[in-house]
Amino acid sequence: MPVHTWPIRIVDDPGVGAGVHLDSNYHPYALVGAANDWTVTASHELLVGYLAEFYKEFSSAEIMAIDQLRKTRNDIAYRGVMIKAEYLTRRKADILKIIEKLKSMVVNK
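RESULT FIELD:
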């Protein structure tokens, strides 16, 4: 695989493995289910993978948190899933830390 690239694998059923993952060398790759909206999912996963690959100031835990937020947002937007307020309450500090890190990166770019 060429340097600075990462695969997005389109599979029939990624099961619980859908999303962005890091291989043993901490390089991102994504598993995307081959559903009707796979291109939307792939583009969002591409953004998370790009962040993981080119912005090493994010830990693997932060990348996984961002990917989980992506999945939750997709569930809400595309499937009408309702989430409990406690979901955000439990994650508020981590989410705000990620937002501040992103804002700082934009300002310092």
